[in-house]
Amino acid sequence: MKWQLISIGKSHDALFVKGIEEFTDRISRYYKVQWQIIAPPKNAASLQEESLKKEEAQLILKQLQENDFVILLDERGKIISSTELAQQLEPNQLGRYQRVVFIIGGAFGVDSSVQKKANMIWSLSKLVFPHMLVRLILAEQLYRACTIQRNEKYHHL
C-alpha cells in the first residue's frame, strides 16, 4: 500500500524541512510514501475565497485515483487519538485500497467537492496551525501510527 501526502502551498519551509523529511523517511520503512506539494493557482491573490477553493479543488481532484482511501485534514473533522489513527490505518482495514491519500487544503480549507471525495475527515486539533506545521505533525503522527501498529517503542501511553 502507498501513502500519498498532498498539500496545497509552497514547498517545505526550511524551518520544518528536516523534521518532515526525517519522519517521511521513517514512514518509508513501513509503507511507500510520497509528498506532493501543489502550488496554489498563480492568480490566487486576486481570487475570492470560494473561487480559490474551487481552483485548488480541481488541482487536488486531478491527483486522486478511483481506488484511493482519502483522508482530508480539516479543523472541522473528527479528533482522534494516535492509537485510533493507527487502527484506522491498519492494512487489513484498508486492504482493498491501493493508496491512502492525505490532503491538506489551502489557507481557506477545501471546496465541498474535495470533502465529498473524503472517506474520513480528520482534525489534528481544535487549534489552527500553519500549513508547514501541519505537514510536520502529519508526518510525525503517521510514523507514530506505524510504530503503534507494530507495538514498537516510539509511542508511550
Topology record:
Elements: E1 2-8, H1 14-27, E2 32-38, H2 49-61, E3 68-79, H3 82-88, H4 91-94, E4 99-104, H5 112-117, E5 120-123, H6 131-149
Parallel strand pairs: 1-2, 1-4, 3-4, 3-5
What is the number of helical segments per DSSP (H or I, 4+ residues)? 6
Largest sheet at a glance? 5 strands, parallel
- Estimate nothing, just give the exact number of structural domains: 1
Which structural class do the helices and strands define?
alpha/beta
In CATH, the homologous superfamily goes by the name: SPOUT methyltransferase, trefoil knot domain
What is the architecture at the second tier of CATH? 3-Layer(aba) Sandwich
Description:
- This protein is of the alpha/beta class.
- The protein has a single domain (2-149), classed as 3-Layer(aba) Sandwich (Alpha/beta knot), CATH 3.40.1280.
- Helix content is 40%, strand content 23%.
- It is built from 6 helices and 5 strands, in the order βαβαβααβαβα.
- The chain has helices at 14-27, 49-61, 82-88, 91-94, 112-117, 131-149; strands spanning 2-8, 32-38, 68-79, 99-104, 120-123.
- The chain has a 5-stranded parallel β-sheet with strand order 2-1-4-3-5.
- β1 (2-8), α1 and β2 (32-38) form a beta-alpha-beta unit.
- The radius of gyration is 15 Å and the shape is globular.
- The two termini are 27 Å apart.
- The mean pLDDT is 93.
List keywords for this structure.
alpha/beta
Q: What would you say about this model in short?
A:
The protein is α/β, with parallel strands linked by helices and 157 residues long. The chain has helices at residues 14-27, 49-61, 82-88, 91-94, 112-117, 131-149; strands spanning 2-8, 32-38, 68-79, 99-104, 120-123.
